[in-house]
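Annotators were shown the component list below and the corresponding predicted structure, then asked to write short factual statements about the assembly.
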Amino acid sequence: ILNVEQSPQSLHVQEGDSTNFTCSFPSSNFYALHWYRWETAKSPEALFVMTLNGDEKKKGRISATLNTKEGYSYLYIKGSQPEDSATYLCALANYGQNFVFGPGTRLSVLP
Amino acid sequence: SQTIHQWPATLVQPVGSPLSLECTVEGTSNPNLYWYRQAAGRGLQLLFYSVGIGQISSEVPQNLSASRPQDRQFILSSKKLLLSDSGFYLCAWSVRDRGEQYFGPGTRLTVT
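Structure shown to annotators:
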């Protein structure tokens, strides 16, 4: 079973700061890596899907990269805003196994 | 457009009581359906998934069961709840295996 780790577990930043966190995995034997944002009292919302080593995706102030050779993906948030406060989940879609989620990184952006 | 519904939103049940959580999807046909649980302080854990009516795969042994009586209906059940069944339950659907999953609003279950 694929083990997905995320760090840090939680993070507090000031409004306007840029930040990043990590999703790491032991093997590149998966179909796709997904990032989700999960706000309190809402459903997880899909942010990015990446499949190839070197993939980079961007949506507004949020971007992500994938390095399958070294086993990690980074999520970057530029100029954090209070509305960015959420838990960010990483999930691997493994061949024949569906999704394996990491424990998430809880981001709090202080005004 | 596709939508996914879950109910109830919150539930408080005593230990030993039965459970039935329902999930329905609208606007798509033959979706893959999933039940996840988030226990306190932990990540999302896949409980069951289904690729078609009557087809259920269980990811972990547990006190729960799932059924798919109709194409767009997924039910999570238990005959006798345990304290450890408390958590946040999410239903999700996808168009195909390994594709993007879309989540419902969730059910907060507290077993007392």
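Statements collected:
1. Chain A touches chain B through 21 residues (CB under 8 Å).
2. DSSP finds no helices and eleven strands in chain A.
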